[in-house]
């Protein structure tokens, strides 16, 4: 295997090693995938301003996210079916994040349960909550996250209904997956993945099966999930969840300035500018494009984080320069996980950290908290209004 130097190298390797239905689940967007593509291409439109003859010694990427010390302003985003990219995927990702010194966020739709990850972690992780119609189940999830010592709750607001992802339909990705001839042939060629899956008991949705009413196996899971995402979700529900949780709360899925102000009003500790990785509203703005508007709308009233489209340390720097106080990587760490397990996630974090550190130095800074719009040269008028 040739040297791995960037996230793209790991993506290519993961595509070879992970069954197509699960790789495509992670690496796809809704409808035409236009927003999914713009999430990354809009980063490319922002240029960096180089500085020379400045002292580059003693650099630090360390900062804080919601008061928690982090080695760099990057967290592992909540991603569904992580444990199908690699056996025990959530556990492996959490361990890599803990060792590196960044937060790991466990999804409601994870394969490994809250308790599984807690058992294999010594550092507190964060838990991401989807709001279901069954409020008793939601309350129990929150209670389980508390009991596991989770230090923050990430509440996702942009999945009241599920956007259509064509690849999932074509691949027969259901719960359980449809055993089509094409799927069976593909699975037979992914021997490395298959051997790891045979060695684990965690092959279902660990936070749901055995915990939600009437869900005892994969066969009755699909109907439950189809019915449970709550289209009537409102800010009143956010208040209820905040009361139930009682700890650090992060609101995920903000793409509008007025919604950002409502997040402030809700009393949340942070919000995440996110379009769900381009997996919900196709045609929405990219997260990096709307980020400056959200930052301008809320000022210092709430901590602003950002996800969707980050594939490098340079992307992290651009988001920080435009006002984010933290960022999240989803697909990037999934590529590493699918390619090389825990070692691959660590490799992703090492790559992003090195890119962030070196780029920060070339831009004339020694501390990641010093970044500002002055470090950027926008490619067109979309960003020009945010430079002063």
Structural class based on helices, strands and sheet pairing: alpha/beta
CATH architecture call: Alpha-Beta Barrel
Strand order of the largest sheet: 4-11-10-9-8-7-6-5
Percentage of residues in helical conformation: 40-55%
Oligomer: single chain
Instruction: Look at the structure and name the CATH superfamily.
Output: Aldolase class I
Residue fraction in strands? 5-15%
Major sheet summary line: 8 strands, parallel
* Mean pLDDT over all positions: 94
- Tell the overall outline: globular
End-to-end separation: 47 Å
Output the helix-strand order. Answer: HHHEEEEHEHEHEHHHHHEHEHEHEHEH
Cα radius of gyration in angstroms: 20 Å
Number of helices: 16
Low-confidence stretches: none
The CATH class name reads Alpha Beta
Notes on the protein architecture:
With 388 residues, the protein is α/β, with parallel strands linked by helices. The protein has a single domain (7-384), classed as Aldolase class I (TIM Barrel, Alpha-Beta Barrel). Helices cover 44% and strands 12% of the residues. The protein contains 16 helices and twelve strands. The chain has helices at 7-17, 20-26, 34-44, 89-100, 114-119, 135-147, 166-171, 181-189, 191-198, 221-228, 235-245, 257-266, 287-298, 313-321, 331-362, 381-384, and strands spanning 46-48, 63-65, 68-70, 74-76, 105-106, 126-130, 152-156, 249-254, 270-273, 303-306, 326-329, 376-378. Strands 4-11-10-9-8-7-6-5 form an eight-stranded parallel beta sheet. Helix 4 (89-100) packs parallel to helix 15 and helix 12 packs across helix 13 (287-298). The longest helix has 32 residues, at 331-362. The radius of gyration is 20 Å and the shape is globular. The N and C termini lie far apart (47 Å). The relative contact order is 0.20. The mean pLDDT is 94.
């Amino acid at each position: 295997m040739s040297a791995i130097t960037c996230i793209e190298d790991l993506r290519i390797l993961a595509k070879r090693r992970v069954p197509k239905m699960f790789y495509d689940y992670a690496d796809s967007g809704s409808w035409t995938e236009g927003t999914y593509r713009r999430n990354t291409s809009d980063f490319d439109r922002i240029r960096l301003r180089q500085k020379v003859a400045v002292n580059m010694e003693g650099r630090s990427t360390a900062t804080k996210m919601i008061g928690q010390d982090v080695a760099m302003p990057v967290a592992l985003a909540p991603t569904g079916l992580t444990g199908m990219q690699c056996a025990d995927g959530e556990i492996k990702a959490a361990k890599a994040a803990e060792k590196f010194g960044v937060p790991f966020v466990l999804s409601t739709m994870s394969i490994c349960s809250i308790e599984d990850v807690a058992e294999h972690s010594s550092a507190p992780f964060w838990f991401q909550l989807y709001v279901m119609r069954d409020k008793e189940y939601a309350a129990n999830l929150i209670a389980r996250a508390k009991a596991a010592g989770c230090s923050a709750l990430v509440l996702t607001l942009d999945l009241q209904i599920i956007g259509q992802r064509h690849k999932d339909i074509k691949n027969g990705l259901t719960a359980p997956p449809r055993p089509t001839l094409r799927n069976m042939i593909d699975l037979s060629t992914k021997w490395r993945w298959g051997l790891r899956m045979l060695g684990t008991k965690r092959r279902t949705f660990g936070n749901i099966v055995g915990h939600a009413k009437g869900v005892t196996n994969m066969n009755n899971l699909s109907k439950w999930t189809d019915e449970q995402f709550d289209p009537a979700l409102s800010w009143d529900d956010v208040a209820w969840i905040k009361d139930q949780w009682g700890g650090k709360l992060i609101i995920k899925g903000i793409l509008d300035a007025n919604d950002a102000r409502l997040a402030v009003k809700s009393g949340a500790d942070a919000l995440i500018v996110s379009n769900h990785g381009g997996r919900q509203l196709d045609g929405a703005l990219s997260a990096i494009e709307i980020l400056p508007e959200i930052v301008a709308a809320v000022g210092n009233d709430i901590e602003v984080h950002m996800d969707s489209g980050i594939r490098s340390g340079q992307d992290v720097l651009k988001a920080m320069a435009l006002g984010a106080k933290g960022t999240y990587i989803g697909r990037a760490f999934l590529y590493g996980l699918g390619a090389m397990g825990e070692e691959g996630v660590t490799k992703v974090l090492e790559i992003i950290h090195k890119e962030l550190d070196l780029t920060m130095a070339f831009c004339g800074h020694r501390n990641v908290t010093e970044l500002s719009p002055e470090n950027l040269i926008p490619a067109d008028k979309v960003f020009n209004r945010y430079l002063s």
